[in-house]
Amino acid sequence: MPPALRPAHETKHIPVLIYPFRTQQFHLAQLDNGATNGSALWLGAQCLSLFFSDNLKRRPSPPGHSDAAFRPRAIELGSGIGLSALALASMGWDVIATDLHDVVSSVLADNISSNISRLPVDSGTVQVRILDWTVPPDRWLWDDPQTIASSEAEKPNHAATQTPILGPPFDLILTSDTIYSPDLVTPLLRALHGLCLASASELRSTPVYLCLERRDPALADHALSEARDSWNFKVERIPHKKLAKALEKSGAHWEKGDWEGVEIWKLTLRA
Q: In a 10 Å sphere around its CB, with 0-12 CB exposed, 13-18 middle and 19+ buried, how is residue 87 labelled?
């Protein structure tokens, strides 16, 4: 019998989660030592990955071309233990999973590498890199296989890799459980804005999906207002019923109180 899909607050004490997603099970190590917010599973990543499972449609490749050459590309800010990145990869996306150095080194990199073999044969890839939002986007590096941006004194790594390094433009930008500190709101929105500019095309604006848990309503409202007023984003909430439907279809038969504060917002740059 497959493991039950439990809300994150019930599983903080479990060192390695056996986490069901669609037809596979991820083995996700997490830490409950309080050293950093990103080293354990949070509810937003669960809800966002289940929303994507029910709502993201796979684009067919042009006739005569391989799927790999035309896989859609995503980048995640604040990947934590790697659930959302692995979920997207299992759905055929190439993903850059990013977080701070401490999170990458303690849980994220190992979780990605240990779960690659559990992905379906037609999955996309996941590349892990350090990205510190407090570094302005004009100082980011896309040709370094380990670090996009770090406030620490790290030397760029330009060593040759067998796998092509992923970079912009992106078809999807995502972040969850990242609205928790007033000091980080502006750096996060600046980073999302920079990624949208790097992915801009005449046809469409790359969507940003931001999932938050409304623990501090004033902080959430401030972040959404700043996104709209200072960074020129169109800000739309995904209907609650749409998220509830996705959770129900996935087998997340949770009580209302388990996830009622979770919201998913779609941000797109206005022309």
A: buried
Q: Give the integer Cα–Cα distance in Å for 52 and 22.
A: 11
Rounded to an integer, what distance in angstroms lies between the CA atom of residue 44 and that of residue 211?
Answer: 6
pTM: predicted TM-score of the whole model, two decimal places: 0.93
How far apart CA 172 and CA 117 sit, in angstroms, is 24
Give residue limits of the domains in the chain: 8-269
Q: Note the pLDDT tens digit of each residue in 216-270.
A: 999 999 999 999 999 999 999 999 999 999 999 999 999 989 998 999 999 999 9
10 Å CB burial of residue 270 (0-12, 13-18, 19+) is exposed
How far apart CA 82 and CA 266 sit, in angstroms, is 21
**Residues in the chain, total:** 271
- For 8-269, give the CATH class: alpha beta
Going by DSSP bridges, is the β-strand pair 233-237/208-213 parallel, antiparallel, or unpaired?
unpaired
